[in-house]
Design brief:
The complex is a heterodimer of chains A (553) and B (203). Chain A is of the alpha+beta class. Chain A has three domains: 150 residues, no CATH class; 204 residues, no CATH class; 112 residues, no CATH class. Chain A is 42% helix and 14% strand. Chain A is built from 21 helices and eleven strands. Chain B is an alpha+beta fold and 203 residues long. Chain B is built from eight helices and six strands; from the N terminus they run αααβααβαββββαα. Chain B has a six-stranded mixed sheet. In chain B, a hairpin with a 3-residue loop joins strand 4 and strand 5. The chains are: A alpha+beta (553), B alpha+beta (203). Chains A and B meet through helix 19 and helix 20 of A and helix 1, helix 2 and helix 4 of B.
């Protein structure tokens, strides 16, 4: 039996993309898998009694070494801000390519804490900063220094000691360009080194909290229980900076979604499912309920989604346990069809992620297909003609063409880059200034404009001739030829409508990172948690691959 | 040192601010990145060009022919480059073409480099006394080594080079003969056991 890949007109809608969950394909999980046999070390631990100073961690294999350099700084409570406009942080980090010497550390000490206004070099691969969750950090220090473990309810509610507010890579602020590292064997998936940075930062937070507690009360202090450490991750506050990325990297987006869709297709095509695999799926499903019930947010929007998800997952679990026979042919296909028919979008994508758990042999090759050589698809095939382009648009953007951009509500918003922080923002074009400097992120509107133009042009006109008169549409002509071969390269939705929820775009990207517990703080930014439940570096050589569904247990 | 990613993004945004469409600005970003990757002064020349663009009415050439001459001023290297990359299949069939007056010719070079990759042929770009050989977008060689690149090329010729050897048959044979010294003479018995031996190929 052959199962069709799911329709991009369904999957690439913002509400669906905003319902994606982490999976075995997620970058933080593939990072752990890739680096599990690397040698982990804490090379330098030079903190004062209050926990300020420098720490260096490394991963090493043969001649290759990656070192995380952490700079922990003292800041006043009033200076602490998660907003991207902040200028000071509790800690700042860079991932160094190799083993840093004293000169490197001295140089980086001056630059890394400055973040966006500092300058990095080609020897640095990623850059980040993080703030303490002061309430949790202080609580943990207080308890550990008194010889007690912290209150688990509080820890579970927050989920981390520190949260990062940005993780930069790929040439930002002078960091190494991707071309310098992309041929390395271990860099066979996107955002590998960003994930390494966040993972090692998590370890730093445990080491720092233990160190501060120990110095506060050397005789009585105890270390944070490793089981508690495992159930803590790293928080992250994410704003609109991520949204343009998925529009500006169409082939990369395609490769992420295509891997997910291929995985689902292959799983649905399995005729007989081994009992070990079906049991594993059921165990993960049952365990996962805890991930939903411990998902805290004050966002009404997300609370409703969680409520629907919990109800639907319980309904599905009941169906699987009481009414479903895994010995039937193509059981995952039957389950998928049931879920698609009876549950909400949030639940459909949740179950799709869960279905991947038993299938390393399907997932691992797909992980290697999630990068893209984007330059290979940059040149427009100008020897094609207008009729061909029109047909591509009719076939690949059919839903987009039905949007009426004459209506004000359908082009109410515009994307721009803020002058003060050089960060993307979205605003109401009828209330705010600046829509004349709009960023090219309104793909649906521009594709429709292109299509309307093509309707009045003679069919056999070559694209080079068309472009010579229509330079303003060049960016979407390029995209249309890309989508011809990359069906999941476009968001099949309107990104400038009155009803656009920007965090849907962030959620899509964060789910591929492997984030858990999306906590929207508005429609424009959210908090998440990464690596919660993940093995500690010292446990990497032999860890439970399904740790996501064992957390909190 | 600025990363190539910063160079591309900033060049793209600056070009947009200077009045180019987003699609053309994307081309500029890629091309300046390429120049800097090859060690050529892309940023310096783009900066000067975008400043001069506001006061100098550079011309667009929508359709490239065998011989191309601006009406009044000089050609804009960016619009000319975009036209070239778009029309390269047609222009290639001319075997060569010539231009009069291209402003900031160095900004035209990355388009030629990318065109060389598209058509799978080397391209020789000659202006005044300077030569650039574009090699499939893998490298650029030139006799122009000074840091100060001219802001105007007055007389330009582009040759699309056929894929021919860069050496004589005699030189090849000489080298091949030497390479044969790594081969081992086969005995009759070894020949009998080689692939296909002993079978009737008419079966």
């Amino acid at each position: 039996m052959e199962v069709e890949l799911r329709d991009p007109n369904v999957i690439m809608k913002l509400s669906r993309l905003g319902s994606f969950h982490q999976s075995k394909l997620s970058f933080l999980r593939s990072f752990l898998n890739e680096f599990k046999d690397w040698e982990y070390k804490r090379d330098l631990f030079d903190l004062d009694k209050k926990g300020f100073g420098v720490v260096v961690y490394s991963f090493k294999k043969k001649d290759r070494v990656y070192s995380l350099i952490c700079f922990a700084n003292e800041i006043q409570d009033g200076e602490r801000s998660d907003r991207v406009i902040a200028t000071k942080w509790d800690a700042a980090f860079t991932l160094y390519d190799g083993v840093p010497n004293k000169d490197d550390i001295d140089r980086l000490k001056k630059e890394v804490p400055k973040q966006e206004v500092g300058r990095l070099s080609y020897k640095e691969l990623t850059l980040s900063r993080a703030n303490k969750s002061v309430r949790v950090f202080d609580h943990v220090v207080k308890n550990l220094s008194n010889g007690q473990q912290p209150n688990l309810d509080l820890l579970e509610k927050v989920g981390y000691l520190y949260r990062t507010t940005a993780v930069y890579g790929s040439g930002k602020f002078g960091l190494a360009d991707r071309f310098r590292i992309k041929k390395r064997d271990e860099i066979n998936g996107p955002f590998r080194l960003e994930m390494m940075l966040v993972y090692l930062v998590r370890q730093f937070t445990f080491d720092q909290v233990n160190h501060v507690a120990k110095n506060k009360n050397p005789k009585k202090a105890v270390e944070l229980d490793t089981k508690i450490c495992k159930n803590l991750g790293i928080g992250n506050s994410t704003g609109l900076g991520m949204a343009p990325f998925i529009v500006n990297h169409p082939t990369l987006l395609n490769n992420w979604i295509m891997s997910r869709e291929k995985a689902l297709k292959k799983i649905r095509e399995i005729k007989k499912v081994d009992i070990h695999d079906s049991n594993l799926f059921k165990t993960c499903l049952k365990n996962s309920i805890k991930n939903i019930t411990s998902w805290n947010t004050e966002s009404e929007y997300q609370l409703k989604k969680i409520k629907d998800l919990l109800s639907d997952v319980q309904k599905f679990l009941d169906f699987v346990e009481k009414k479903f026979d895994f010995e039937t042919d193509y059981p995952f296909n039957q389950l998928y069809l049931w879920v698609e028919k009876k549950t909400c979008e949030e639940c459909i994508e949740y179950i799709v992620s869960l279905m991947m758990e038993p299938y390393n042999e399907i997932i691992e090759p797909l992980v290697k297909q999630m990068s893209s050589e984007e330059d290979n698809y940059f040149t427009i095939p100008t020897n094609r003609n207008v009729e061909e382009l029109k047909l591509i648009i009719e076939t690949k953007y059919s839903n987009i063409l039905s949007i009426n951009f004459e209506k004000k509500q359908n082009f109410k918003k515009f994307w721009f880059i803020s002058k003060n922080k050089e960060e993307p923002r979205i605003a109401d074009r009828f209330k705010e200034e600046g829509s004349d400097l709009e960023q090219p992120l309104a793909i649906a509107r521009d594709i429709k404009k292109l299509y309307e133009k093509l309707l009045i042009i003679k069919k056999d006109m070559k694209i080079d001739e068309f472009l010579s008169e229509n330079s303003d549409l060049r960016h979407v002509v390029r995209r249309a030829f890309i989508i011809e071969n990359f069906p999941y390269s476009e968001i099949q939705d309107n990104t400038i409508s009155e009803n656009t929820i920007p965090i849907d775009m962030l959620r899509l990207k964060l789910s591929f990172f492997g984030a858990l517990k999306f906590d929207p703080r508005s429609d424009k930014w959210l908090r998440i948690c990464m690596f919660q439940g993940a093995p500690l570096p010292s446990e990497l050589k032999n860890y439970d691959d399904h740790w996501v569904y064992s957390a909190n247990s | 040192m600025k990363s190539l990613s910063e160079i591309e993004t900033t060049s793209k945004r600056a070009s947009r601010a200077a009045g180019f469409s987003w699609g053309v600005s994307e081309e500029v970003g890629k091309c300046v990145r390429l120049l800097e990757l090859f060690g050529l002064p892309g940023i310096v020349n783009l900066n000067s060009y975008l400043k001069e663009k506001n006061i100098n009415d550079f011309e667009n050439l929508k359709l490239i022919g065998n011989e191309n001459k601006p009406k009044n001023n000089s050609f804009c290297p960016i619009y000319l480059g975009v036209s070239l990359i778009d029309q390269i299949r047609t222009v290639e069939s001319f075997k060569s073409c010539s231009f009069i007056n291209i402003a900031y010719p160095i900004l035209f070079i990355p388009f030629l480099s990318r065109a060389s990759e598209v058509i799978g042929k080397k391209i020789l770009f000659i202006f005044d006394n300077n030569q650039f050989l574009l090699n499939f977008n893998l490298c650029i060689s030139s006799n122009l080594t000074k840091k100060q690149y001219p802001n105007l090329a007055k007389k330009i010729k582009i040759n699309f080079l056929e894929n021919t050897d860069n050496f004589s048959e005699l030189e090849w044979k000489s080298l091949y003969k030497l390479s044969e010294e790594t081969f081992v003479e086969e005995t009759e018995s070894l020949k009998q056991g080689a692939a296909g031996a002993g079978l009737n190929d008419n079966d």
